[in-house]
């Protein structure tokens, strides 16, 4: 894949996510198990992404889950926000496929582009070729939730909405389920960081989906504190209804 030195950040994001995904698939064929496999995956994907960014965008700042942060990014105009392996638990549980690589590019205050690789499913979603939303089937709203630890808050909101819960793995996979049509919304309030949502949000926006905090306020990236604890990604026709329902539960979420 040929990458231009400048001006094609969306294609570069796709290339980075794909390359890290291939490395993770190779890492997964080894004998490591459990924590050792998680750690090896995190380190391998981080090394691939760091090397490629140093080669293609040496002057850009980087915020990564798997690297030391630097205050220099706060005054930078160009920042890559990456999660080398989103869903380490699922990655370590062969043959699960619900784990991902997140690569987002932020420029002058806004997410400009991004890509998510789901390596075990042999797919990369990116802003260079935004996903096309499929027609929605009839039925209740479907909420993507954690397969192992769905927040009580989301369960309560789902009950009020008359929604169905669709359990799955990583945050990237849950976001992608909205643009692939497996779910109608991903609602989260259990604590996240910018690298958990930046790439999924970039792709979701390119696909025409609603993205916001759970109180409806904008998602802001490249802040001094990278914690970004809550998120709503959903089909636009459900945004108002979901936000109105969530608003009745926000005091309980804060109390928790």
From TrEMBL:
Keyword terms: Magnesium, Metal-binding
Family annotation (SUPFAM superfamilies): Carbohydrate phosphatase
Tagged with keyword Zinc: no
Chain coiled-coil ranges: none
A matching Pfam family: Inositol_P
Catalytic activity: adenosine 3',5'-bisphosphate + H2O = AMP + phosphate
Listed PANTHER family: 3'(2'),5'-BISPHOSPHATE NUCLEOTIDASE 1 (PTHR43028:SF5)
Protein's UniProt name: 3'(2'),5-bisphosphonucleoside 3'(2')-phosphohydrolase
Species of the source: Kineosporia mesophila
